[in-house]
Amino acid sequence: MPHSHCNHGSHDHDHGNPEEVGLQYNLYQKIDKDNVECLNESVDGSGKTVFKPWEKRLDTTEYVESDADEELLFNIPFTGNVKLKGIIIRSEDSELHPSKLRLFKNKPNMTFDDASMEPDQVLELQKDSQGVLEYTPKIVTFSSVSHLTMHFPTNFGAETTKIYYIGLKGEWTPGHKHGVTICTYESRPMLDDHKLKHLDSVGRPIE
């Protein structure tokens, strides 16, 4: 059955100036690389290598390949809040290329069992060996993302899946560190207990 390259606006070929595109695909700098987790990677730590600069997207020396089967799952924490606007997935023009991407927002430490839940968005992928197909997340859904999970459940028929580059485009803003809070407890024995209930603690962020 023939199909067009543009599937209901989910991706777009026309990037305009490649240098401008490269400037837009800079969210790899805002990923907390030390805490990126890739499940079912054949080589430990290889999943982190696909988040790299735009100009290195055609580099084939660093890639991730799945191990036991064709599935890959990335847990990607950001260093702040992201409004996600574009995704590029580059593999090779073969059956190793992933054929589907399931996106989950703000669900840290997901496992393959967790991925059985309904995703926030599903993208049908096409083979892209040049890193030119851009997929568009739902802006309303992915407007405040502190953690992104990318689940690649299937490919085009191979036993394993290979990915060279994952590009993310969007806007980044500093996030609030919820764990860094000083609580000041004030003791006022002269007040009745019922007046204390709303004064038990005062939280303020560290300056």
Question: How are the elements arranged and paired?
Answer:
Elements: E1 11-12, H1 18-24, E2 37-39, E3 64-65, E4 72-90, E5 100-105, E6 121-124, E7 134-135, E8 145-152, E9 162-163, E10 165-174, E11 181-184, H2 193-196, E12 202-205
Antiparallel strand pairs: 1-7, 2-4, 3-9, 4-8, 4-10, 5-6, 5-8, 11-12
Name the features.
207 residues; mainly beta; 6-stranded antiparallel beta sheet; 12 strands; 32% strand; globular; disordered N terminus
Overall 3D shape: globular
Q: Strand portion, in percent?
A: 25-35%
Secondary structure class reads mainly beta
**Separation, N- and C-terminal Cα atoms:** 61 Å
Order of SSEs = EHEEEEEEEEEEHE
Number of alpha- plus pi-helical segments: 2
CA radius of gyration is 21 Å
Largest sheet: 6 strands, antiparallel
List segments where confidence is low: pLDDT < 50 over at least 5 consecutive residues: 1-9, 180-186, 193-202
Q: Give the number of DSSP strands.
A: 12
Walkthrough of the structure:
There is one protein chain. The chain has helices at 18-24, 193-196, and strands spanning 11-12, 37-39, 64-65, 72-90, 100-105, 121-124, 134-135, 145-152, 162-163, 165-174, 181-184, 202-205. With 207 residues, it is mainly beta. The strands form four sheets. Strands 2, 4, 5, 6, 8 and 10 form a six-stranded antiparallel β-sheet that branches. Residues 1-9, 180-186 and 193-202 have low confidence and may be disordered.
